[in-house]
Design brief:
globular; nine-stranded mixed β-sheet
């Protein structure tokens, strides 16, 4: 790629924005990142750290419609909707329910598999082997249930894994006791997916990505984008809180806040914020070498270098409502139910915004009505997994190179 090609602005310096910027910078493009927070900020700081390369199960599944009333009524449930926000969230929720119909679930699963299977390869490509070995553990992931029999949801997940050719191993109660000393007897069975993994520090991982972008010639300006203004004749002006910039091409990788930049341009995308909470336990006292997702209680635990991260649940309440610390406290109750001896002293709470689409697939590609404006948002629960392959795909689209994937599956145009 020639070095005299026009500069590109990337709005957002989380995993997705940094991955896109790194691939673009290494291709010879001049790249500037805009983000008011230093890396890592937003969801890239507080996520569960799981890298689910062998996961191809969307969040919306058959039977979701009958669950909506209980979600509205239970503020501490695994998925809660604040009643005051329900009218605003309703159009997104209806699309979400539609995405849970079985024919569409199969299509989504195929698209997830195509992207997620590239995750570890992209992380290695971006980080180099030394950084990869330091920061990422491709050691598998365990899902557990507190029921003897296979639930309907677990059976569907198994069928989707079989459809995608994903390796898994059934674990009985004895297997789980040996793998995880101290796990509660309430946990009856599990599944090991050896093709998954995690990062020991999302914070340090994103710091490293940023350093690699700078090393490749990119730069980060600590500015908040206020509005994007199309220029007559092509290109865009970008108003920030501390500057005014021009670019012929822009990548919007601003996570859950992307809609506030896109809507004034007349670009409507079904992007909702799934507010997620985590609890950090610095002195947990457990001996874990893999992540565990408790499917009966809808939360997960990840052993990180600064403690045990307990994360999960979904709250639909928008960007402006204050956190509900009771949801974080519920995570403490859940981890104590799974590991009764866990030390929860000196815990720390956090809440962030997952940028989520109704069909669990990101929005990747050029906006049809705005040439030169590309979207790279909507990774929901899978930012650490899908972010790097998404960055590579968007960089290839911008450079008009082969993507290696069916880019139409992820195009913003799929929602009209």
């Amino acid at each position: 790629m020639p070095h005299d090609t026009p500069p590109i602005m990337v709005v957002g310096a989380g995993v997705v924005g940094l991955s896109t910027a790194l691939y673009l910078s290494r291709s010879g493009r001049s790249v500037t990142l805009l983000d008011p927070l230093p890396p890592p900020g937003g969801a890239s700081f507080g996520n569960a750290g799981m890298i689910s390369a062998d996961t191809a199960v969307p969040i919306a599944l058959p039977g979701m419609l009958r669950e909506v009333p209980s979600w509205v009524l239970d503020p501490l449930g695994p998925l809660a909707i604040r009643p005051s926000y329900l009218p605003k969230a309703l159009p997104w929720l209806l699309k979400w329910i539609a995405a849970g119909r079985m024919p569409r679930v199969l299509e989504i699963s195929d698209a997830m598999r195509a992207m997620h299977r590239e995750s570890f390869a992209c992380w290695r490509e971006m980080l180099g082997q030394q950084n990869f070995s330091d920061l990422i553990r491709p050691v598998g992931q365990v899902h557990v249930w507190e029921s003897e029999a296979e639930t309907k949801g677990a059976a569907l997940e198994r069928r989707l894994r079989e459809r995608q050719g994903i390796e898994s191993q059934v674990l009985d109660a004895n297997d789980l006791r040996q793998m995880f000393p101290g796990i509660s007897e309430a946990v009856k069975r599990g599944v090991l997916m050896p093709g998954n993994g995690y990062t020991v520090s999302p914070q340090r991982l994103v710091h490293t990505l940023h350093a690699l972008v700078v090393e490749a010639g990119g730069r980060l300006l600590p500015e908040s984008v206020m509005k994007i203004l199309p220029r007559e004749g092509g290109g865009y002006d970008i108003m920030t809180n501390a500057g005014f910039h021009h670019a012929t091409q822009i990548v919007i990788a601003a996570g859950a806040r992307a809609t506030r930049l896109l809507e004034p341009l007349g670009i409507r995308v079904p992007l909702e914020t799934e507010r997620g909470y985590h609890v950090m336990l610095p002195n947990h006292g457990l001996s874990l070498t893999t992540t565990i997702s408790n499917k009966s209680r809808s939360f997960g635990v990840t052993p990180m270098e600064h403690g045990l991260r307990v994360a999960g649940t979904v709250e639909i309440a928008g960007l402006d409502a204050p956190p509900d610390e009771r949801r974080a406290k519920a995570l403490i109750a859940n981890v104590r139910a799974m590991f009764p001896a866990v030390n929860v002293q000196e815990h720390r709470f956090w809440m962030g915004f997952r940028p989520s689409t109704p069909d669990s697939l990101p929005l990747l590609g050029e906006a049809a009505s705005h040439p030169g404006l590309f979207l790279a948002v909507g990774h929901g629960h899978f930012g650490m997994t899908g972010g790097p392959p998404s960055g590579r795909l968007v960089a290839n689209l911008i450079n008009r190179q082969a993507t290696g994937l069916d880019a139409a599956r992820y195009s913003p145009a799929r929602f009209g």
